[in-house]
Amino acid sequence: MTAPLYGLLVLAGGRSRRMGRDKSALAYRRDERGEGVPHARYTAGLLARMCDQVFYSCRADQTQDPAWAGLPLIPDAYDIGGPLNGILSAQKAHPGAAFLVAACDLPFLNAYALAQLARERNPGMAATVFHNPARDSLEPLCAIYEPGFEESAHPSMKLGLTCPTKILGALSEIAQVEILHPAAADFLENANRPEDYDRAVAVLTQASHGSTGSP
Predict the structure, then answer these.
(1) Predicted pLDDT at 28
(2) Could you say which of 12, 16, 75, 80 would form a disulfide bridge with 23 (CB–CB 3.0 to 4.6 Å)?
């Protein structure tokens, strides 16, 4: 039986050291009133088109942050560094659901990419992920994780692996990952530094003015 894809997770637990400010609060786009839209809110809106609920992954200390008041939060439940904590914590909170996971630092993420994930999802695998040609690796933060992911990943975790990319790589070697190859993968480009943010804003602003060839 296919697990419902109603649990959605926007990863917002990082400390954004390279960016120098909260990446989830950065605005790449403006609303009809000309006000900047925090990227976490924009991404959550994209995710909400695919599933019934959107949950925000966060550090335990962020649950008391007024900026997150009223949002459906899933705090980290494990003593693990990095985004793996958020993925496993979400599955612990909602063990019967699959999670479509998206990072909060993907300025070019779009509904078409998420629709492809949902459409080509393979519930019989531990995860469905995109191959990121820019890195020649699997992209763990724009992916669907099935309820059995933790069990499948356990052997890798016992060996000390906590990087989702490396775990997915290990699972792909034993044919437990559905790998998608998008025609264009600009939507997987992330923004970690101020110069990345400035470039993304420039590209998206140009695109909003009707230019062609934008992500």
Answers:
(1) 94
(2) 16
Give the pLDDT confidence of 97-123 residue by residue, as tens digits.
Answer: 999 999 989 999 999 999 999 999 999
Pick the closest to residue 200 from 215, 185, 182, 213 (CA basis): 215
State the pLDDT at residue 149: 97
**Length reported for the chain:** 215
Q: Letter for the amino acid at 109?
A: L
Residues pairing with 138 in the sheet: 131
**What is the chain's mean pLDDT, rounded?**
90
Apex 167 CA angle, 161 and 171, nearest 5: 135
Q: Cα(158)–Cα(1) distance, rounded to whole angstroms?
A: 28
Domains identified in the chain, total number: 1
Q: Would 109 be classed as within a structural domain?
A: yes
83 domain residue, yes or no? yes
Q: What is the pLDDT of residues 124-133, one digit of tens each?
A: 999 999 999 9
pTM tops 0.85, yes or no: yes
Task: For residues 75 and 65, give the distance between their C-alpha atoms in angstroms, rounded to a whole number.
Answer: 12
User: Can you give the CATH number for the domain in which 32 is found?
Assistant: 3.90.550.10
In a domain, 2, yes or no: no
**Buried-state track 14-42, b at ≥16 Cβ within 10 A, e below 16:** bebeebeebbbebebbeeeeeeeebbbbb
- Nearest-angstrom CA–CA distance, 2 and 96: 10
